[in-house]
Specification:
This protein is 42% helix and 19% strand. The protein is an alpha/beta fold. Helix 1 packs across helix 3. It is globular, with a radius of gyration of 19 Å.
C-alpha cells in the first residue's frame, strides 16, 4: 500500500474515533506521526503475508475499516472479513469492497462458519483485546476453521518493547500483552507448528514508538498502583509527556522521510521487535 493511501485510511480511522467519542478531536490524532506509524506497522503485516494468501480462502478476524482487504484482495481467491463494530464495518464496505471480499458483522470469538472453511486465518492486533479466560476458546476457534495444513497469521504488541516487567498495558482496551516466549507457549497448545518473528523498524522509527510508550518507573510501580487502589484511572502528565514527543508538529517532514517500500520494516526473531508476528500451522 502506498503511504498516501495509508494516510487516507489513517485519517478515516481518526474521524471514526472522534465520531465514537473516543477522542476529543480527530485533527490532533491526524497530526500525530507516531500514531500513523502504528497504522503503518499494522499494514506492513498484511503486506508480509499477502503472497501466502495467493489463491487461498482467507478469514480476516478484526478487519476494522478494511485496510488489510485492500492489500489481500489482489492475492486471495476469497476473503471473509469480520468485525464486531457496525460503524467500522460500514466504513470497510464503503472503502474496501471488492468482488472477492465479503464483510460479516460478528464477534471474532463466536464464528458461525463450518469446520475447515479456510486456508488462512488472519488475526492481527486481536488477541490482546480478548479476555484471558477466552483466549483458549479463540485459538481453538481459529484452529477449527482452518483446513489441514492451513495457517493462522497473528500479530500483537511486544510487551518487552513497550512495558516494564509486570506493568499493565497502557491501552485500556488491551487485557494483556505478550512476550515472545509466553505467546509461543500459548500458541503451541493449539498448533502443531509455530514460527515466531517480529516486525521492526529502523532506528528513528523504533525511537518514536519507544518514546510514545515509555512511562517512568515511578509512575508504573508507585503512582499508577496508588491511583488504582483509590479507584482512579491512571493517567500521565500530558504536559510533561508532550515535551518528550519531539515528533509532534513534524508530521509532514517525517511523512516525506518515511517509505513503506524500503527497509523500514523487516521480520526478525527478536525480543526487541515492536510487534510480535506468529505463523501457526494446523
Amino acid at each position: 500500500m502506498e503511504k498516501k493511501q495509508l494516510r487516507e485510511h489513517f485519517d478515516l480511522l481518526s474521524d471514526w474515533f472522534e465520531a465514537q467519542g473516543r477522542i476529543p478531536s480527530s485533527a490532533e490524532r491526524k497530526a500525530d506521526f507516531a500514531l500513523y506509524l502504528v497504522n503503518a506497522i499494522h499494514v506492513k503485516a498484511y503486506e508480509l503475508i499477502a503472497p501466502s494468501c495467493h489463491d487461498k480462502e482467507v478469514l480476516d478476524l478484526g478487519c476494522s475499516i478494511g485496510t488489510g482487504e485492500i492489500i489481500l484482495k489482489d492475492f486471495a481467491q476469497r476473503i471473509v472479513a469480520v468485525d464486531d463494530d457496525e460503524t467500522r464495518m460500514a466504513l470497510a464496505k464503503q472503502h474496501a469492497s471488492a468482488p472477492n471480499v465479503e464483510f460479516v458483522l460478528i464477534d471474532a470469538t463466536k464464528s458461525p462458519f463450518p469446520d475447515e472453511s479456510f486456508d488462512v486465518v488472519v488475526a492481527f492486533q486481536v488477541i490482546e483485546h480478548i479476555p484471558p479466560t477466552q483466549v483458549g476458546t479463540f485459538l481453538e476457534q481459529c484452529r477449527r476453521l482452518l483446513r489441514p495444513g492451513g495457517t493462522l497469521f497473528l500479530t500483537t504488541p511486544n510487551r518487552r518493547f513497550r512495558l516494564w516487567p509486570f506493568q499493565k498495558p497502557l491501552n485500556r482496551d488491551h487485557y494483556q500483552e505478550f512476550s515472545v516466549a509466553r505467546l509461543e507457549k500459548v500458541l503451541r497448545n493449539y498448533f502443531s507448528s509455530v514460527e515466531m518473528a517480529g516486525i521492526r523498524g529502523v532506528d528513528w522509527i523504533e525511537r518514536i514508538e519507544r518514546t510514545r510508550m515509555h512511562r517512568s518507573m515511578m509512575d508504573v510501580y508507585i503512582r499508577y498502583p496508588i491511583l488504582r487502589f483509590f479507584g482512579r484511572s491512571p493517567s500521565f502528565n500530558r504536559r510533561k509527556q508532550l515535551r518528550k514527543w519531539y515528533w509532534l508538529g513534524q508530521f509532514e517532514p517525517l511523512f516525506e522521510k518515511f517509505d513503506m517500500n524500503n527497509s523500514f520494516f523487516k521480520t526478525a526473531q527478536t525480543d526487541i521487535a515492536i510487534d510480535l508476528f506468529a505463523r501457526c500451522t494446523k
